[in-house]
Amino acid sequence: MLDAALLRQDLALVAERLAARGFVLDTAEYSRLDAERRRVIQEAEAVKAERNRVSDEVAKLKRAKEPADHLIAKQQEAGKKLKDLEAAEKEADAAFKDFMDRLPNLPHKSVAVGKDEHDNPEIKRWGTPRDLPSPKDHVELGTKLGIMDFDRAAKLSGARFTVLRGLGAKLERALIQFFLEQNIAAGWEELLVPYMVLPHCAYGTAQLPKFEQDLFKTFRGEDPLYLIPTAEVPVTNLYREETLDAETLPIRHCAFTPCFRSEAGSYGKDTKGYIRQHQFHKVELVAFTMADKGEAELEHLTRQAETLLEGLELPYRRVGLCTGDMGFGSQKTFDLEVWLPSQNCYREISSCSWYGDFQARRANLRCRAKDAKKPELMHTLNGSALAVGRTLVAILENCQQPDGSVRVPDALRGFMGTDVIRGGE
Predict the structure, then answer these.
(1) CATH top-level class of 117-421
(2) Among residues 21, 252, 361, 390, which one is catalytic?
(3) In the structure, what pLDDT confidence band is assigned to residue 423 with cuts at 50, 70 and 90?
(4) Which architecture characterizes domain 26-101 according to CATH?
(5) How far apart are CA 381 and CA 54, in angstroms?
(6) Fewer CB atoms near the end CB (10 Å): N or C, the chain?
(7) Is 165 a catalytic residue?
(8) Whole-number pLDDT of residue 424
(9) What is the model's pTM?
(10) β partners of residue 225
(11) Beta bridge pairs of residue 420
(12) β pairing state of 216-220 and 223-227
């Protein structure tokens, strides 16, 4: 959530910065909602003051044993009016909050201005893609090797689910273990978190209210619970409503979870194969830091994800998302894109974002520096390290051999117990 004070101080500037990411701020509606909210609050304060004044007068008359009926009637009238104003204030607050909840974050000044992914500047490349004359895609490879079963998964759950078999399941498990161990060795504390969260957690990381259609929802009795779309949601909310000592920052966590996404609005996009699933696995990195350390922490987090791709010998590139391609809550994002031979292009495998205090304001994540008079909002960051399914796809395609087998990267052979995946194993 944006700081409402920013809009009051310079509404035109906020509108200009939001326009850079393709969002049109309804300045007239903001001004109307803000004015109505402040009017009701001021009127309520005036009625409270009048009621208190009348109450004092009534008390004085009663002590003097003089009639106060006319003032008591005023006191009761003020009480009724105040009750109505409190209801109006609650309604005005809710309308103002709903408006603010739907505003995306302001892009950082270092973010390139652009409309979409075509305007994302490339920052670096690592590794050289193999020269494969006729590369097979992961669907053909996985099916022929007998390690991916899309048809039987559809019988179980419908489209966009996959059954991994034999060494396919083992490869997924090996990747999870590799990612976790590498991240832990680099100083990220492992967490095992719930896979369902309460609405206030989904609100804290800005999935709610705007993106509810992308979430799977269930109930415990009458209470709603949301299946997590990423470990970002429970891990970021771990310290909600808390004030941490600034000396303990940065705090860095990693967590493996299944992830659940309805993929609303993505029909026709990657519907075939293992790239865009309703259920998938991911190891997530989440960091909490001070405002002046946020940009450096983004580089640290992104670099950690890069080391995993390098450890697997997978060619990738880093791009900076332009203003028009960033996620709703991010103020700066780096995407890591892995090379996929069958598509002859790089595809996203990790998105590393710095949210500033956007999530912290929603989840009330605060820290206090030593001797500081008051606490301040923390800055939050997160990124995939890595998306397991997409990494599996990249290994199948980049490590395919002419005979249809797949070479297992050196870093995974200790987990796999083999150096090659062949059909029938």
Answers:
(1) alpha beta
(2) 390
(3) confident
(4) Orthogonal Bundle (1.10)
(5) 53
(6) C
(7) no
(8) 64
(9) 0.92
(10) 218
(11) 407
(12) antiparallel
Give catalytic status of residue 318 as yes or no. Answer: no
Among 276, 317, 407, 413, the active-site one is 276
Residue 303 to residue 381: CA distance in whole angstroms: 13
Selected catalytic residue, list 313, 348, 376, 425 = 348
What does residue 189 show for φ and ψ, rounded to 5 degrees?
-75, 130
Q: Single out the catalytic residue among 330, 350, 351, 353.
A: 351
Check residue 132 and report its DSSP letter.
-
Question: 82-96, 104-118, 213-227, 386-400: which has the minimum mean pLDDT?
Answer: 82-96
Please say whether the beta carbons of 329 and 358 come within 8 A. Answer: yes
The per-residue pLDDT for range 309-365, each reduced to its tens digit, is: 999 999 999 999 999 999 999 999 999 999 999 999 999 999 999 999 999 999 999
- Helix/strand/coil for 255: strand
Residue 376 bears catalytic tag: no
130 counts as catalytic: no
Q: Of 37, 261, 318, 362, which residue is the catalytic one?
A: 261
Distances from the Cα of 282 to the Cα of 120, 126, 388, angstroms? 24, 22, 5
pLDDT at 79: 76
pLDDT for 320 equals 98
Letter for the amino acid at 218? T
The 10s digit of each residue's pLDDT in 32-75 is: 999 999 999 888 888 777 777 767 776 776 676 666 666 667 76
Amino acid at 382: N
**Annotation says 351 is catalytic:** yes
